[in-house]
Every structure is written in C-alpha cells, then in structure tokens.
Amino acid sequence: MSATPVDPGSGVVYPVGLRLLDRRVVVVGGGQVAHRRVAGLLAARARVTLVSPEVTPALEALVEPGSLTWVRRRYEPGDLDGAWYAVAATDDPAVNAAVAAEAERARIFCARADDRAASSVWTPAVGRHGELVVGVHGGGDPQRAIGVRDAVVAGLTDGSIADRAARTPEAARGGSVVLVGGGPGDPGLITVRGRQAVAQADVVVADHLAPLTLLESLPASVEVIDASKLPRGRSMAQEQINALLVEHALAGKRVVRLKGGDPFVFGRGMEELEACVAAGVPVEVVPGVTSAISVPALAGIPVTHRGLTHEFVVVSGHLPPGHPQSLVDWPAIARLRGTVVVLMGVDTAPAIAAALVEHGRAPDTPVGVVADGSTPTQRVVRTTLAGLPRTVAEAGIRPPAVWVVGAVVALNAPHDAPPQDDADLD
User: Fold this and answer.
1) CB 371 within 8 A of CB 400
2) Catalytic residue among 115, 150, 229, 372
3) Half-sphere CA count of 349, side-chain side, radius 13 A
4) Which position among 79, 114, 202, 207 bears the catalytic label?
5) Is 229 in the active site?
6) What is the pLDDT of residues 81-118, one digit of tens each?
7) 207 assigned to active site
8) How far from each other are the two terminal CA atoms of the chain, in whole angstroms?
9) Could you tell me the pTM of the whole model?
10) Rounded distance, CA 315 to CA 278, Å?
11) Is the dihedral of CA 24, 26, 32, 37 positive or negative?
C-alpha cells in the first residue's frame, strides 16, 4: 500500500493542532531539517525517537539529558511501531518513501520533508505569541506561509493586531505585574517577550532609560506613568513605585514596569518583585539586554577577548570610593587584570580612576566612554585612566554613559594575535 499523492498546489488541507504531550513521535533523519522539526516536537513535549546513523551536534546535545532517544542506525521497517506521528527527513528519497509507506499502512500521519505531494500531513509555518499559536499553510508555497506568519506575529507583538480575547474584563481576571528589562535604549533591542508584555499592558510604569518610543503605539486607554529617576535630579521614590505596581495590579490591571537595561542589574528589580510577592500579586520577570555588555559591544568594545582577558566585572559608580555607604572593594577591583565596566559613574569618574591607579592599575590603561549607547546620539571617547577626568570634562559627558577599563578598549588598533592554548574558551 502506498501513499496517494496530493497536489500541493491545491491548497486542500484540514488544519488541526496535535496534542503530542508524552506521545511517541519518530523522526527519521539527523540533519538540519530534522533538527528544526525536533525543536517544535520537543516544545510540544512529545516523546521523540530519532532514527539516523549520524546527527547534527545540536541534536546530539539533546540525547544525554534525555530530551530525545537516538537510534544510531539507518531506518528499518517497524521503527514506527507505537508512533502517533512521523517525520521523514533524510537526504535519501527512497528511505523517505519507505517511511511514508509504513506510516500509511499503520495509519500514522507522516510529513515527508522532501516531497509535500507524498506527505499525509503538511507542517504549517508556526509562530508563537505567549500561549497563542499561529499556524499558516501557504497552499503549497512555504515562503508565502512564512511571510504571513511573520506579519501576524509581528502585529500581535507590537499591538497593531489586537488580541481582544486576551483582554478579558478586569472583573474576570486578577491583576499582575511584569518587570520588563527594556535593553540599552534602542527599541529594537528589547526582547520579544518584553515587547509582548508592553503590547498587552493596561498600565505601564516606565523610567527615562526605557525604550520610550514603544509607548507611542499603545492604545490611548493604556495608562503610562512616568517613574523616572534623574541623576542628581527629580525622581520618584522607590517606595512609591512599589506601591503603584501593587495598587494597579490589585485593581485587576496588567501592569508592566518598563526599565532600562536589565531589571536585576542595578535596576532595583528585586525590590519591586518582593513588594509584589508580599502583596500577593503575581509577578513575572522578563530579563533585558544589560547596558553593561551591550553598550560597549555597540561601540566595538568586547568585555572579553581570547588571549587578552578571562574576566570582567560590572561596578556601580553612583557612590565614589571612600563613601561610607559604598559596598565596592575598590582595591580588589584595581588588582584585577581583566575588564572593569562602570555604570552610573560619570560624576564619580575622577575619584574612581584615581582609586584604581592608587591601588595598582596602570595609569595608561585604556578607557572607553560610551554616552547615549544604542541611541542616534551615541558617541564614543577613548582615553586612559590618567586622562579620564579631563576627558569627561572636556567632552561634556553626561549620563547615561558606560565606561570600560582594560586592554579590550584598544582592540580597534593593531594588536597581537591571541595564543592558541585557550582557543576553545570563548
């Protein structure tokens, strides 16, 4: 018995969602196509058996933790026994045909990666938006399906496609808080989950370092609260921010606390999480791209480099060395051979540079200062520890700025090739 070919151009397909939790699925083949299919099957928590004499490194990495079972040989009749679903993804059409034929006899739906016409099931282009799954069949044109899928997911993410069913009446649901790290400032550098949370918010409590252009696309019904903390200027007290998050959540609102960078890197995110937990408010943390790493990277400065540094440390510079409330061991920081990244350290830069030199860091150590990182006004100034105070003053550096100390700052200039003994460390 053989599969009856279906004209893929007909577009005749019955869309259905398979619930494969703890059900056996067999994938025959171990290449890139199999890898892509396995990823989706594992997301559905299927029990995946992979039949192939060889697999990609990424697939092999899933075997040891038990995510899938690998049968290390070529396909043999009977391999589909007990399966609910099968995928034929080898580079041999004859093997794929044999898998599809066995599946047909056993009444198991089978996707042939090399021949849609001979498949009993077509895999849609799949996208996810929270718990919502979007599947698009392109009538035999995979690229068309992918394009439509991407457009729908992008619309759901930025709010241009309203998921009205998700906005259930306040009385029918409890409120919640999502602590979102917005990244270094460029709205394109917020995470997908972070953008989704903002698009679904009833209330957004934002600081001035967050990607505020994201707020422009929000419906007028979304309340936006300015919780900025300006350096040495106006600021909303943290206790007031905590109270606002809890107050709106207890009123049934979906609240997003939109912060710059990452909430847990000098962002006081843990204080906000603790306040929500204490009040019985469900809270989610969405990590952000921290400016400590991303801003130097955007300026062409890596915080590590093979053969040059095996360590980096991120330090808050909001208090100068010697301040009674400072928790930084500056003598220990100065003894490090690697990279030092200083956040919130514009006004204190002269005192910090002096302390680093005093406790052992060479005065000619390269320093890179990146102001307004990831924004259209970003600028980079390079100097040394000894020259940092004068550079900050003459260049008119103002917050927000990140500065980096270490040999990595000079990597845009000619430098020796790294040794080979640590080639696999990075």
Assistant:
1) yes
2) 229
3) 31
4) 207
5) yes
6) 999 999 999 999 999 999 999 999 999 999 999 998 88
7) yes
8) 53
9) 0.77
10) 29
11) negative
